[in-house]
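Deliverable D2.4 — example input (structure tokens):
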């Protein structure tokens, strides 16, 4: 059996084998992952319900008011604009101005409420996602390498590593903005150069850009996920260092890692389509959040297994020691 383990560790897992190993790792680590998954599921359901009820109520008030006073919207800046040339009395001018000012204040107040609610829900959701990321990746990596963490170990790991994924996400966000800005500049420059006399070349260029955008998107998202796994598992790795390490680990396996993200994107899309089957919140919210949580769990574990395989391969080339995952029969 030991030879089988060594043979498996030395050979690179394919996409299907990596997903199978991820399911085995989840089953091996189920005592810790199940409570985490339940807490995350309940948290996201509560946030989803709160978002839909609060935002729906405020939005309906805002839309109703804007629809009712749509003829006054253009007077928000100058409430007396349409009264200047009309023979209204002083009191009619004053009342109209006060009425419109009140309408404007109510609209702005609703907008502020929507913004604050969105900001609060986004902040809480980010905290839950961060905890889910650190606990899932840490426990799954240890479970895959023949060790199961207890809640105390997970808490210590969370306290030590929670800053690193945030820093890495910030730099990945900047990198994504930079790529988007670069693509926009390329499109603008080529449009100015080719629009007049080379319409065919411009069309071909735009087609090439359009076809390359999904490839670029999935690669960047994959790099982001692998960088987050690196940030959690490697001491001192965050920001550019974690991104560089992720690029090193993905070398030779970029297509496989990106295909994983494509599969999960398709799965997320199917869940979104199924969510449109019913408008009943009591059914839709638990159903969609449950599937999203399961998919997120599996995706994190898959990239954790991918990280271990690539790290083991690099360590073997460098002559370093490495952990061997336990055999399936020992789970």
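Example output (designed residues):
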């Amino acid at each position: 059996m030991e030879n089988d383990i060594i043979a498996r560790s030395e050979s690179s897992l394919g996409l299907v084998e990596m997903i199978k190993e991820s399911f085995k790792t989840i089953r091996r680590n189920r005592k810790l992952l199940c409570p985490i998954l339940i807490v995350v599921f309940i948290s996201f359901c509560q946030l989803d319900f709160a978002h839909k009820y609060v935002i729906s109520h405020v939005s309906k008030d805002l839309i109703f008011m804007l629809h009712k006073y749509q003829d006054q919207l253009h007077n928000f800046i100058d409430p007396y604009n349409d009264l200047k040339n009309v023979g209204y009395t002083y009191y009619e001018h004053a009342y109209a101005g006060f009425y419109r000012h009140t309408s404007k204040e109510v609209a702005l107040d609703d907008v502020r409420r929507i913004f604050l609610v969105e900001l609060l829900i986004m902040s809480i959701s980010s905290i839950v996602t961060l905890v889910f990321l650190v606990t899932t990746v840490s426990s799954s990596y240890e479970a895959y390498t023949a060790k199961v963490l207890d809640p105390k170990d997970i808490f210590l790991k969370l306290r030590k590593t929670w800053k690193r994924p945030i820093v890495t996400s910030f730099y990945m966000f900047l990198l994504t903005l930079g790529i988007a800005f670069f693509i926009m500049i390329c499109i603008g420059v080529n449009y100015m150069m080719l629009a007049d006399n080379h319409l065919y070349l411009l069309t071909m260029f735009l087609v090439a850009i359009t076809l390359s955008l999904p490839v670029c998107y999935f690669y960047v998202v994959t790099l982001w996920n692998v960088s987050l796994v690196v940030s959690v598992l490697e001491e001192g790795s965050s920001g550019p260092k974690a991104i560089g390490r992720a690029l090193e680990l993905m070398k030779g396996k970029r297509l496989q890692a990106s295909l994983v993200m494509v599969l999960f994107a398709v799965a997320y899309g199917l869940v979104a389509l199924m969510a449109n089957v019913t408008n009943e919140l009591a059914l839709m919210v638990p159903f969609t959040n449950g599937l999203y949580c399961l998919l997120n769990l599996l995706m994190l574990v898959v990239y954790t297994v991918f990280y271990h395989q690539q790290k083991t391969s690099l360590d073997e080339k460098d002559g370093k020691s490495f952990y061997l995952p336990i055999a399936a029969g020992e789970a």
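Confidence is low (pLDDT under 50) at residues 1-11, 73-99, 326-331.
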